[in-house]
Amino acid sequence: MTSEISAPPDPQLLESMRSIGYSVETAIADIIDNSISASATQIELEFDSERPEALTILDDGIGMDADAVIKAMTLAGDSPLAGRASTDLGRFGLGLKTASFSQCRHLTVVSKTKFGQLVGFAWDLDHLAETGRWSLIQLDEAEIQGVPGVASLDANQHGTMVIWRKLDVLAGKKGTTARLLNEDLVRVRRHIALVFHRIIEKRGIRITVNGRSIDRVDPFLANRPGTQKGPEEYISTGNSRVRVQAYTLPFLNKMTREDRQLASIGASFKDDQGFYIYRNDRLVIWATWFRMIKKDEHTRLTRVVVDIPNSLDHLWSLDIKKAVAAPPPEVKSQLKRIVDRMAKPSRDAHSYRGRSIDRNDGVERVWTMISERSEFRYQVNRRHPTLADALARDPSGTESLLRLIESTFPIYEAAGRVRDEMTPSTRVEYLELVNTARAIWDNMGGVTGAQRIAAITSILKLTEPFAGRDDISKIVEDVAR
Ligand SMILES: Nc1ncnc2c1ncn2[C@@H]1O[C@H](COP(=O)(O)OP(=O)(O)OP(=O)(O)O)[C@@H](O)[C@H]1O
Ligand SMILES: [Mg+2]
Q1: Whether 125 contacts 10, CB under 8 Å
Q2: Apex CA 160: angle with CA 156 and CA 164, to 5°?
Q3: For the chain: N or C, fewer Cβ within 10 A?
Q4: Residue nearest to atom 21 of ligand 1 (CA)
């Protein structure tokens, strides 16, 4: 007959779970998840980078009684397999512990329900190592009162405060300074602002870091007139459905400075394109096409909202940090279909095709646009007098040079800059013009005197960059001198 023995994990498990891969910002976001799931409307993070002894996160959520805090402090106190309220941001019953111990060695939770007293419990990794038991420390009243910042919690009717102390990872790294910690705080602010932007807006939640509200973020500029909203589409999986909606932001030169700030997520607009996956309104992954397409210039302003309910967590391989999620295959193939449709050359590129620079006005331009079905390219016009001269002198050398230039013309780069409202410098120095004209003059051969002057004048009138200028006769004068 088989027999069983109990094999509980060693308390050192908490030590091993420290390196699950949280950053400061993802760890803090995990604590804030819990506050939001507890219906908090005000969440305050306090951290003194000059005296980095404690980091506290206070909320005015429903709070917990002693039993609930003990359960909250227990690893997997709630089963990951259990159904969750559709507003619950949690899944694994781990976040509070794993996120905290990724940054510190001492975690205290003090809480209070509407009609209850303050209760407090703490895990201390050093204490666990000493006792070798799962020895959760229960704080007595005096100890609770000694917890930094607890007076603010006491002043509220209900709520919870998470206190991290012994901040060995967050603040104990060698060479850490207040300045570096402040940089961490900036990242924390940005991260919180982004991942909770929808929740903040929808539920009117206020989140502060050291007393200052975090900034507003609006990745889709959904209410701006220039934003193109795609249709809402639904992908069904099992009993749940995933909502998809594409947005194309207005061109950058049509955005106000404020819009740009609201919509800036990462290093550049090009980087920020992609899917934005929300789980219960909380952004879990963003600015990626899941390798379906490349982050191209013509999709640079496209951002696609994907809304997933928490009932699909098992399909999305959500990780403990809620920072990684991959679409299940049946959703992925549908998303790919949507993306392929969008990744076709944008309308902008189409309308450009009609705007040929071959204007049939007889002017020899340096660049010609060649359009072939849905593609277009720029080619150097070999009939242009200056180029024709060079080709006559060194046919193969010049030809390969021109091909090199044509094939590397930085078209997307240039288009991006123009859209970003940068001003191209198209100025040509007068002396440069005279030199170019002189080369043409020198190669004219045959005619002399007034005839030669008349001839070059008519050539220049029909040659870029002279065509349209009103100082052609002066240029000719300088050349003929
Ligand atoms: N600020 C809080 N207010 C009220 N209850 C809380 C708070 N923080 C944690 N809890 C309770 O503690 C439980 C455990 O939290 P923990 O973050 O460890 O796991 P989880 O949120 O259930 O799942 P996940 O691992 O996905 O975060 C929560 O389910 C919740 O019941
Ligand atoms: Mg949680």
Answers
A1: no
A2: 125
A3: N
A4: 90
Rounded Cα distance, 109 and 64, in Å = 10
Residue 383 main-chain phi, psi, to 5 deg: -85, -10
CA of residue 73 to ligand 1 center, whole Å: 9
Residue 340 tokens, joined: 């392929």
Which tokens in the block code for residue 477? Answer: 């004068």
Nearest residue (by CA) to ligand 1, atom 14, is 72
Note the pLDDT of residue 349: 36
Q: Among the bound ligands, name the one nearest to the CA of residue 119.
A: 1
**CA of 35, nearest ligand number:** 1
Mean model confidence pLDDT for the chain: 87
The response to whether residue 100 sits with its C-beta less than 6 Å from ligand 1 reads no
User: Percentage of residues in the chain with pLDDT exceeding 90?
Assistant: 50
Q: What is the pLDDT of residue 358?
A: 55
For residue 81, the CA-to-ligand 2 centroid distance in Å is: 14
34, 43, 158, 320: residue to mutate for ligand 1 pocket, most atoms within 8 A of CB: 34
Ligand 1 in reach of 102 Cβ (< 6 A): no
Give the list of residues 6+ apart from residue 339 with CB closer than 8 angstroms, or none.
289, 292, 293, 304
- Between 146-160, 191-205, 324-338, the lowest mean confidence (pLDDT) is in 324-338
Asked if 18 contacts 129 with a C-beta cutoff of 8 angstroms, the reply is: no
User: Bridge-partner residues for 160, per DSSP?
Assistant: 59, 111
Q: 3-class DSSP state for residue 168?
A: coil
Mean pLDDT of 73-100: 82
Q: What is the mean pLDDT of residues 87-91?
A: 80
Q: How many angstroms is it from 87 CA to the middle of ligand 1?
A: 13
Over 60: is that where the pLDDT of 429 sits?
yes
pLDDT band at 426 (very low <50, low <70, confident <90, very high): confident
d(CA 85, CA 156): 25
CB distance 96 to ligand 1 below 6 Å: yes
pLDDT at res. 344: 65
User: Which one of the ligands is nearest to 17 CA?
Assistant: 1
CA–CA gap between residue 89 and residue 455 (Å, rounded) = 79
